Amino acid sequence: MPVYKVNVLIENKPYISDPEGDTILKDLVLKGGYHQVRSIRVAKMLKVEVEAKSVEEAREMVRRMCDELRLYNPMLSICKVE
Amino acid sequence: MPIRIGIVVFPGSNCDRDIYHILKNIMRVDAEFIWHKRDDLNAYYDAMIIPGGFAYADRLRAGVIAAFSPVMQVVKRLARDGMPVLGICNGFQILVESGLLPGAFMRNDSLTFICRWTRLRLDVDGSRTPFTLLLDKGSIINIPVANQEGKYYVDEDTLREMERNEQIVFRYEDNPNGSLYDIGGVCNEEGNVLGMMPHPERACEIILAPQHMSNSILHGYGDGIMIFRSLISYLYAKGEHHEPYR
Fold it and tell me: Which candidate, B34, B1, B15, B14, places its Cα nearest to that of B224?
């Protein structure tokens, strides 16, 4: 069976504060002279290799896995399967 | 039959032995470690304590991997049957990730590990949980926190529901980590499951809890002892045990 690479992006919902992103922006990026940068949000990415019959099946399986095994916390985060 | 309390141990738990010491040597009850791979318990336990530490090194998210361990499926069943379950620090995170308690944890506002004494106020009647039985509503106890992902979060609707159901048990007087609504401890709707971020087991003895950090009425003990005394009183009051001669 072919192996597909599926990326899972886990990021906090837009209204949840992200002190790490804020610190990177304020204390590194803006101080470093990149004044054009408006915001930075930190996210986590899982690179998953999965056996499946098709890319659709691979995505669906990874999606199900993320929900079932709480790879992200639905109260805080959103999860995009790409 | 003596009181017997189970202490669940995960790879990375590090407060299990402190709790064992308090239960055995100060409270004088039986305590046993329960390894996380156990999916059946062949002994009777009166209560379960999920200790602090860094189960599975907090990988992915504090508490989530432990929440799927075999022993937690047993703890979930026992909790639903009414057994008193206390989760401390990482144990609180595990109870949240298991769905036994509402909410979620985020990294502290400071992004750093915070280890310091906090003043914790009981925001419900003491009788709301077995672990607060001997405390009066509004009383303040001094207990240290030690966490990095200790900022409690819950969505607006759930918070309102928790307020209505009197599930917000402890609130910080001096919020150390940015927890929403100063929340330091919550219980389930039934009241038998309590999660708290501060470590009562680190505040039971005067050698660890300096005099000025303890309520003076406790004479030689730190405020954390009230959590364990409450549990033991609750279990004796159920009438299945006789108080041992001390």
Answer: B15
